[in-house]
Amino acid sequence: MLETSKDGAANLIFPKYKFDLRLALDKEVNIPPANLFMEIGFNKTKEDTVKHYRRYYTKELEELPEVMPPSPFYLEPIYRQAPKGGILGLGGSKDGGDNELAVTGKFKGLIMVYSKERREEREVKIEKSVTELKDLIKRIYDI
Prior knowledge:
Strand content: 25-35%
Strand order of the largest sheet: 1-5-4
Distance between the termini: 58 Å
Structural class: alpha+beta
Radius of gyration: 28 Å
Number of strands: 7
Shape: flat
């Protein structure tokens, strides 16, 4: 069904209806598989566009090469010092050298590196655009 339609690569599919003579009503046809698409909404009539099927993924999108080939995020582990020999975080040595580092999470973010000259050029361009926009708005409302 998805193999023969153009909807196989789509992230959003709207339902298609066909009139069923035996039941004398419009019946939905070519329903996408439930393991790939989530049904959202409800149509009262076949002309409504509330109901649709949305593709969903079980992993984070940046981990799927077909969605986002190179991950744009910088990942860095976050550490905390854990007491060595303590029970449930209690006790352990007071000397920092005797304790060990434990990974408690990940920092995930975008990092942008650019030159000072390029940043200054960009800020001037943005300021010029904002000034032009303010002048246009003022001219429109002063007319």
